[in-house]
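Box S1 | Example of a co-folding query
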Amino acid sequence: MSSPLFVAIDTPDAERAKAIATRVRNHVGGIKLGLEFFCANGRHGVREMAELGLPIFLDLKFHDIPNTVGKAIQALRPLEPAILTVHAAGGRAMMEDAKAAAPLGTKVVAVTVLTSLDEDDLEAIGIAGDAQAQVARLTLLAREAGLDGLVCSGNEVAAAKKLWPDGFFVVPGVRLPDGHAGDQKRVMTPRKALDAGASILVVGRPITQAPDPDIAARAIEATL
Ligand code: C5P
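Box S1 (continued) | Returned holo structure for cytidine-5'-monophosphate
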């Protein structure tokens, strides 16, 4: 089985992205590219990264009317990304159209509540009360809409798996015990995250900012 470790290459700089991916290609299972990379380099940039031969996780977190999201995903079809993200808050019809527009082999996973929002932020946008309840509600909605799974923290994955036993769970915020958490507040080790039910792990800075990204990726892989 290929490695569950996906490296988040969070840069708009295509040359830097390629350099990191080339270094780590033998010790990761795939590459996550986000909005900054896509806005700077577009489909062409993604295609160049895909030429390295690793599965591509395109983390664009779509959230718009169903027709627009469906057409946006159709426009990405030639790239055949392994994984795509949408916001569950876009609603059931949007998620259904997203899934229908994606290539058969692409997993479409939902973001429930952004971890950058605290209870005050949620109240300010009209979601009063328990954030956990909102996460659970959107988890069930994503499952009903026929998506493949969720993005969630290591702390949430066990509960999410109970609600969605055959879901595909993407877990970011993963750190080795001696690693720097950076701005991640709730971190978990890679091994624990897998034991809790993660399908894949997303690791960014511990690999991309390491003096030798390949050694860092190997060190994480060795714990899995
Ligand atoms: O550098 P680090 O390992 O913290 O990067 C984690 C990656 O996962 C980043 O691309 C970040 O945007 C993403 N992510 C996250 N927390 C979430 C959702 C996504 O850190 N709740």
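The first strand starts at residue 5 and ends at 8. Residues 8, 10, 34, 115, 151, 153, 172-173, 182, 184, 202-206 surround cytidine-5'-monophosphate (CB under 6 Å).
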